[in-house]
Amino acid sequence: MSVPWSGSGLPPAAAERMAEVRASGTWTSALSTGEFASIRSVGFEPVGQVMGSAVYHVGRSGRYWGYHDCLFPGAGYGFSYGNVGNAPIAVSGQGSPAAALVGVFNSARQTALQRMTAECLALGGDGVVSAALTMAPFVAQPNCLEFKVIGTAVRAQGTVRPKHPFTSHLDGQGFAKLVASGWVPVELLVGMSIGVRHDDYRTQSQSYSWRNIEVTGWSDLIHEVRSDARRQLQLQGSRQGGDAVIMASSDLRVWRESCLRARNRNNSEQEDHVAESTMVGTTIARFKARREPPRTLSVMPLGDRGELLKRRLAAVASSPYGDRAQYQRLVQELNETGG
Amino acid sequence: MTNTEPNAQGVPADAMRRLAELEPGKPGSIFTSDLSVNEFLLVREAGFKPIGLVLGSSIYHVGIQIGRWGKNQELETLSQAMYHARELAMTRMEAEAAALGADGIVGVRLTVEAREFGNDVAEFIAIGTAVKADNPPPGGGSWRNNKGQPFTSDLSGQDFWTLIRAGYAPLGMVMGTCVYHIAHQKMGAVFSNLGKNVEIEQFTQALYDARELAMARMQAEAEALHAEGVVGVQLNAHNHRWGGHTTEFFSIGTAVRPLRADHEIERPTMVLSLDG
């Protein structure tokens, strides 16, 4: 039987685990040996594996929610009644109905991150490295999403404590390299944007043309949505401050929906396109280190490079932030070494 | 980045002090970058400051191509579509970078994806990090290319660092594309080769022609930039959704110019990795 929980603070099971870890002094971590050594080398110690999770019901498509409203006055009409080629792009960052949906995603991620930070504080940590943020639907209830973030809490040597624990997606080596060069991670951010655009007459005629032609409305849609996600990332980064954002991943999803506005107006079957962009990154801040940062040393490896590459490849393939370009580079390099 | 001694006296404290002093900043005071940590640090060390993530996209409807089933030929409508759409995406990204006052764009990723837009529609997306140099290039002049545009490069941060160290500067990404229809074999030819392992000259020649065309076009673009050479060339074949006999040959690389006469780099230290 689990203990009832009001929803504020940490869930009882988590609070209990924190108390136990704290009392025993034994830490757990998902760090590899290399990551562990790297973190130690810049003066940080792991204090424990921390997690934050939140399950939200997120309904989105359809009339009832109304999030994917294209806001096009000409929707539902034929060509001669105003449905020409000036459909606007309803972007969440500019207060379209989808802003409410983005708000739900943001608050779900925030809740998960706050719970992870709370666990980190409970263990006396100064921040979290290798935090991986995932979103997965429940199998039986696909519109119930679990937002989960899991990472390793670390503590700095010395007596100076930060105002808020930092969070970052960077792995142990990445963290160590940054700190050694005079940069410290601040906060894990997610910038998200949803844009909706009606397939107006011009868009339809462009996409059925027999000539080569750019579908300008769709280009604009993609561009607006990605720019908005970038703007959201920057806005979120300015909340706590910092100097730069290092990105972990950027995703773009595009799909079509039947147009709500046209259906409500005169039950006609028209379509909208919806684009959703999500950018994940970590803000970093520059600090003045007392020591000169190490210079890069170019090396020629004499060992079995193939094995090393294979391991890095496996790491990229299994990471939720695995970069496809990096994956391809590694595959290519591996082919070159004949491994 | 290597050789950090285990003794990290003061570093963690300095880092934590900075976090304790953090204050909310203005949205404009923070730049975003698409670089990994390694790349970020190496680009900084090469003397460039990342100033922002830049994007360009183009959703392109590909027109109708009339082709002959039994003839090796370039499908010009398709070639032009691939060219024009990539050009649009790249130019938009360059324009964003120019507006930021950038000297160049590093780590550019140019992708074609077919998503939900329909069968004849391709989506071209460019993303990269705009950078600004701390100092003008040695020997004067500008980091921008001869067209006054920020340079573009699809090299990783590591490759970029090595390139600058070796006394070269990137000028721009150059590409060549050729969409080619490889003729179907005639019935007679199929039968006469039945049960034999032989070369099909027609196919070999088609692949040659198409690749040569793509590479020659890339070469021409590099010449237009007055490049000394092109590094990191990738020659790929994409089938997209045109069926087995229609293939796009796409070559892309970074055109470079020399910054100084000698291109010596310091002798790399040899390392024997203990973990494999």
Which short descriptors sum up this protein?
heterodimer, A: 339 residues, alpha+beta, 2 domains, four-stranded mixed β-sheet, four-stranded antiparallel β-sheet, 9 helices, B: 276 residues, Translation Initiation Factor IF3, 6 helices, elongated, disordered N terminus, UPF0145_YbjQ-like (chain B), Heavy metal-binding domain-containing protein (chain B)
* Class based on secondary structure composition and strand pairing of chain B: alpha+beta
Number of helices of chain A: 9
How many E strands of chain A? 10
| Percent strand of chain B | 25-35%
Give the N-terminus to C-terminus distance of chain B in angstroms.
19 Å
Order of helices and strands of chain A: HHEEHEEEHEHEHEHEEHH
Poorly predicted runs of chain A: none
CATH topology call of chain B? Translation Initiation Factor IF3
Number of helices, where a helix is a run of at least 4 consecutive DSSP H or I residues of chain B: 6
Low-confidence stretches of chain B: 1-6
Into how many domains do the coordinates of chain B divide? 1
Describe this structure in words.
The complex is a heterodimer of chains A (339) and B (276). Chain A is of the alpha+beta class and 339 residues long. Chain A has 2 domains: 12-296, no CATH class; 298-339. Chain A has helices at 12-24, 33-41, 98-122, 172-180, 201-207, 216-240, 260-266, 305-318, 324-337, and strands at 44-57, 89-91, 127-137, 144-156, 166-167, 183-198, 213-214, 244-258, 271-286, 299-301. Chain A is globular and about 70 Å long. Chain B has helices at residues 11-21, 37-45, 76-99, 157-165, 187-192, 201-224, and strands spanning 31-33, 48-61, 73-74, 104-113, 121-133, 151-152, 168-181, 229-238, 246-258, 269-271. Chain B is elongated and about 80 Å long. Residues 1-6 of chain B have low confidence and may be disordered. Chain B has one domain (31-258): Translation Initiation Factor IF3 (2-Layer Sandwich), CATH 3.30.110. The longest helix of chain B has 24 residues, at 76-99. A 4-stranded mixed sheet of chain B has the order 2-5-4-6. Chain B is α+β, with helices and mostly antiparallel strands and 276 residues long. At the A-B interface, helix 2, helix 4, strand 7, helix 6 and strand 8 of A face helix 1, strand 1, helix 2, strand 2 and helix 3 of B. Strand 8 (244-258) of chain A pairs parallel with strand 1 (31-33) of chain B. Chain B: It holds the Pfam family YbjQ_1.
